[in-house]
Amino acid sequence: MNKYLEDLVKLSKFDTQISMFEPQIEREKAKLATFVETAEAIKQSINKTYAEIDDVKSKRTKNNIHLSELKNKLEDISKKHNLVQNEKEVKALQLEEEITKEQISFANEEIQRLDQITEVKEIELKESQEKLANEEAEIKDIQVAVDNQIEEINNQRNVVYHERSELLEKFDNKILTFYEKIKRWAKESAVVPVKKQSCYGCFMKINDKTYAEVIKSEEIINCPHCGRILYKEDETVEA
């Protein structure tokens, strides 16, 4: 294979490797982000439950105050029974007493209902807090694993950068400029293999003459369809 073409293939492979490191790091970060999002959702649920419990307790306090007022009212009605002077006043007091007792009964039922809601909400709160504790413990373990993996990826990237730099030190400037010009639009597919007599950049079939030149690998050959640099892989690699 032509020395310049061989260097181009190596450079292209280095650039392809480099382009893959950042997505790998992002995938590792995404693993952690999923658990962090779950933990955040649990925290929001806990805050919501706290607010609901506070609201229920506030309603219970108001009902307690109202219940105390009704009991005082019932005591006043009881005292008035000794002061009534006719049947009309007796009936009016009895009606007021019945209404007050019904209101007391309803207030007691409402307090009982609110207590049941509070009990359920506190159970939910405890379960959410336990779930959050487990999630945060898991996040710590995943954070360590992700950090280690990212460190490994960065180490690999540094090795590739170093090898690429060594290659560029002996690279022909005209060939490099030619490669960079194609890479601007072709990205990491500036240099592609030919398989089954087709360019593996645009997947168009190349003519026999161009294919023969690619096989010889004596010159740098561009795809007649897309302009990418072509090369023929070894038979074992292609297989």
Automatic annotation (TrEMBL):
Keywords, ordered alphabetically: Coiled coil
Coiled coil: 67-152
Keyword Coiled coil listed: yes
The species this protein was found in: Malaciobacter mytili LMG 24559
Cited Pfam families: Zn_ribbon_9
Domain C4-type zinc ribbon: 198-230
Protein name as it appears in the record: C4-type zinc ribbon domain-containing protein
